[in-house]
Amino acid sequence: MLIWFVALYLLVTVGIGFYAATRVKNSRDFAAGGRSMGFPIVAAMVFATWFGSEAVLGIPATFIEEGFAGIIEDPFGSFGCLMLVGLIIARPLYRMNLLTIGDYFKKRFGPNVELLISLVIIVSYLGWIAAQLTALGVVFNVISDGAVSTTQGMMLGTAIVLLYTLFGGMWSVALTDFFQMIIIVVGLVYLTWLIGDMAGGADKVIAHAASEGKFTFIHHFEAKDIVAFIGAALTMMLGSIPQQDVYARVMSAKTENIAARASMFGAAFYLCFCMLPIFLAYAASMIDPEMVKRWLVEDSQMILPHLILEKTPLFAQIMFFGALLSAIMSTASGTLLAPSVTFTENVLKRFMPVMSDKQFLLAMRITIVVCAAATLTFALYSDASIYEMVGNAYKVTLVAAVVPLFAGLFWKRATTQGALFAIAFGLGSWVYLEYSLTDAAFWPPQLAGLLFSLAGMLIGSLLPQLHRHAGESALVAQA
């Protein structure tokens, strides 16, 4: 029965995606929804795109082992990212009326910076999309009781998400996200009530977690621990901002106020609902401690699915796996579209500058297929956890794109040379440190890369001006 309900859910989702395709009239409809969406749809997209496999499987598994100290990057860093976008980023970007975040870098710093940062953004999506495809494989394997292997499940899930994203683009993402958000909210609220009651009440679960020190954000206040905390927080908080999926949601709104407010509402909603899977997973350790111990050794991401399958009635299983599939598919569709649009607009157009709107739309769709195949291959051969895949995805944008974005928006003296220096310093130092430092190193490589990127922007932007001023002073002295 569970499999049949899941199949029905998938059919409904694909049907909504195909309906959305009827609204796609041109490439801007496909890439950004034609800047025509109201607050409920934009807020739902923000929430549903971010609330993915890591929120239901990865974050709770990490919390059980490490508490809040282990999940600084996500959800707390992600919450900070979306709040910053709503407070200071959404409005100035919305006014530029551009198709992609790469277009902003082209307008502010020129085509070379556009190309480099667009490639960085595209690469960063590899881990995030792969995490969702891995989770889809796990879900299909679990609900079929092993009849569908994880690999087969990943392929099946990729085909389903690809199908409706390919035809409807941003409109498919928007309408399916809205539907999937409803499933997530209803399913998790019901399960929290059910599982909390099985564990003896929500107050007992929370008190037990507190007594175990799970709500501590940092265990030691030595300099190394503080630096590691800052590095973890900034990875998602800042590294997630220069991303096409964030920009696409800003650009899909009817007005800049909707863009800003929907981002902030999505941030608050995301943080609140990330607490529910955490609560469920920790309650599992009180309901069936032996099962939790077993899966902590084998794969902690399986604790919550097996709790639901072994301890709850069919209706609860339907609600859980409906919510889980909703979370994964909404994130997968949005993150699959974003790098494809970026590649077509900011990389392919350099080599094919003269394209009709139909050719551009076809190019985006072909790129989506290629992107899906590439990320599926990466997911099949990666041995990283879902949480690690998502966290690592944003390190590259943190060290290469954050400083040029903020400097370009808020520092008038930022120059193209400064942006190129920032990219080179940030990427170069991060790659070197990532492969040369041990886990015992004082500086997290991504934090050091961010600081080097900032230094590159300052040196590249100010040195030519200082040189010019020195020359002018010399001329005055000679006169």
TrEMBL record:
Spans traversing the lipid bilayer: 6-22, 42-64, 76-94, 115-140, 152-171, 178-196, 226-243, 264-287, 314-339, 360-381, 393-411, 418-437, 443-463
Topology relative to the membrane: Multi-pass membrane protein
Keywords: Membrane, Symport, Transmembrane, Transmembrane helix, Transport
GO molecular function, one term: symporter activity
Gene Ontology CC annotations of this record: plasma membrane
Domain of life: Bacteria
Main location (coarse class): membrane
Subcellular location: Membrane
Membership in a protein family: Belongs to the sodium:solute symporter (SSF) (TC 2.A.21) family.
Protein name listed in UniProt: Sodium:solute symporter family protein
Source species: Aquipseudomonas ullengensis
